[in-house]
Amino acid sequence: MSTGDSALMISISGVRGVIGPALNAEVAGRFAAAFGTWTPPGAIVVGRDSRLSGPMMRHAIIAGLLSTGHDVIDLGIATTPTTEVMVTTHGASGGVIITASHNPEPWNALKLLDAKSLFLSASQGEAVLAILHEGRAVHRRWDELGTLTEDPAASEVHIRGILNLPWIDRGAIAARRPKVVVDCTNGAGGEIAPELLRRLGADVVEMNCEPTGRFGRRPEPTPANLTALCERVRATGADLGFATDPDADRLGVVDGDGVALSEEYTLALAADFLLAKAPGPVVVNLSTTQALDDVCARHHVPLFRTAVGEANVVAKMLEVGAIVGGEGNGGVILPKLHPGRDAMVGMALILQFFVESSRPIAALHAALPQYTMVKRSLPLPRPVTDAELIDIARAAFGGTLDTVDGVKATRTDGWVHLRRSNTEPIVRAIAESRDPATASGLVDLALHRFSELTAVRGG
User: Which of 41, 111, 341, 371 is 20 to 30 A from 128, alpha carbon to alpha carbon?
Assistant: First the structure.
């Protein structure tokens, strides 16, 4: 999808851009009005993360929605999974999440939900964009406008849903009283995550939990960004640490030795715990660690892979009746609660695993198959087609090629996935192998061949 403005990223992941000429109140209001026109009658839920541009975006988006005749339920600062939960709780016709997720502070975005709290499919998104581009947004008369209400109880509803999951034993956790350091990078999870952990029975140490929008670290919960959390875990003698991104749909884990685990192992730990209790299908995307294949084999359940993008994973999960799924960026999806990535669900499952196993997080991680994943990217100097990426993979790697999303080449010594990002103007290369040097070499070769391609063909 394209708006004709290269500074805006329009994809299956939503609408996002840097606040300013690209994304501003006017643009946000027009997108909201197009979405309101497309959405069937009924209320629309709106939640936002803590970014400094959040209040401006909130006012513009709510105004756009009210103008199309929809009532709006404003959650204020709320995590992405909390907003998803509240769409179905209120029986709403849709939802808007104002967040740029893992992007830096200058960015913001609109993520659009349907009545089932699912992110819009590609065809649904195209329908909204058609209304926008063709100027078909319907603005109602003065006496047909929607009304605005607030719901301050959204976090409590979300927390209760997690506490009531059949695999969570608050008594067992409280009896152990594990010490947990939680770092929410001053994002939307800053209040709900510590509160959930306390209600589970943990002794909580807060870090970057003021929802100021001034991120306390780089926003992605990856090991490279969690050095301060690792130090705090060691300094406090904590059993483990948790880290979220600004909208709290992704989770990073630090073990009791103060070592940050690859975000790829967040889902692997949660799945290993859950599948022992409730075996069933698992769905992940093409770029998620091969450790999930091994975990699923261990529990004798099928694993399905999809194109990158939460909407793709969720659609397949619902199709096959998956018990758990997600993405290797730290995104755990538990459809029993709601069909979306949820850092708080991940915290509860991993904390329960830790308590029940009576083993340190480091030992639980060591019991999983160990792979090294390398992720790198390059700017897109010009539009690049999937066919060009496939040519690179076929010539450079051989092996089995999967072309569902860009191209993934799988060989006996590892795999490499080359694709255009849905959220940034870059091409991503991700590789994994049991041998770190092999994983690094695969990525280097992929990006080298990409650079050659764009240089020769007009990059």
Answer: 341
The span from the CA of 351 to the CA of 321, in Å, is 25
Please provide the CATH number assigned to the domain covering 372-456. Answer: 3.30.310.50
Q: Predicted confidence band at 13 (pLDDT cuts at 50, 70, 90)? A: low
The domain ranges of the chain are 8-152, 157-366, 372-456
Cα separation, 455 vs 378, whole angstroms: 13
Core vs surface per residue 204-236: b (16+ CB within 10 A) or e? bbbbbbebebebbbebbbbbebbeebbebbbeb
Query: CA angle, corner 441, sides to 435 and 446, nearest 5?
Result: 135
Using alpha carbons, select from 203, 200, 197, 204 the residue that is nearest to residue 172.
200
**What pLDDT score was predicted for residue 252?**
98
Task: Enter the tokens of residue 108.
Answer: 């913001």
Domains 8-152 and 157-366 share a fold: yes
Tell me which residue of 376, 379, 388 sits closest to 426, measured CA to CA.
379
Residue 287: helix, strand or coil by DSSP? coil
**pTM score over 0.85:** yes
Q: Which range (54-58, 90-94, 127-131, 275-279) has the least confidence? A: 127-131
**Under 8 Å between Cβ of 201 and 225:** no
Which one, of 225, 125, 138, 136, lies nearest residue 183 by Cα?
225
Q: Which residues form the catalytic set? A: 101
**Beta bridge pairs of residue 149:** 73
CA nearest neighbour of 373 among 269, 299, 443, 322:
443
Q: How far apart are CA 2 and CA 422, in angstroms?
A: 12
Provide the greatest CA pair distance for the chain: 66
Residue 243's beta-bridge partner residues?
A: 183, 252
Question: How do residues 111-136 score in pLDDT, each as one tens digit?
Answer: 999 999 999 988 898 899 999 999 99
> What 3-state class would DSSP assign to 44?
strand
pLDDT single digits (tens) 210-228: 999 999 999 999 999 999 9
Q: Which residues of 423-445 are buried (b: 16+ CB within 10 A; e: fewer)?
A: bbeebbbbbbbeeeebbebbbeb
User: What's the CATH code, domain 157-366?
Assistant: 3.40.120.10
Pairing of strands 94-98, 107-113: antiparallel
Q: What is the pLDDT of residue 14?
A: 64
> Per-residue pLDDT averaged across 200-215, rounded?
98
Which homologous superfamily does the CATH classification assign to the domain defined by 8-152? Alpha-D-Glucose-1,6-Bisphosphate, subunit A, domain 3 (3.40.120.10)
Selected residue with higher pLDDT from 230 and 425: 230
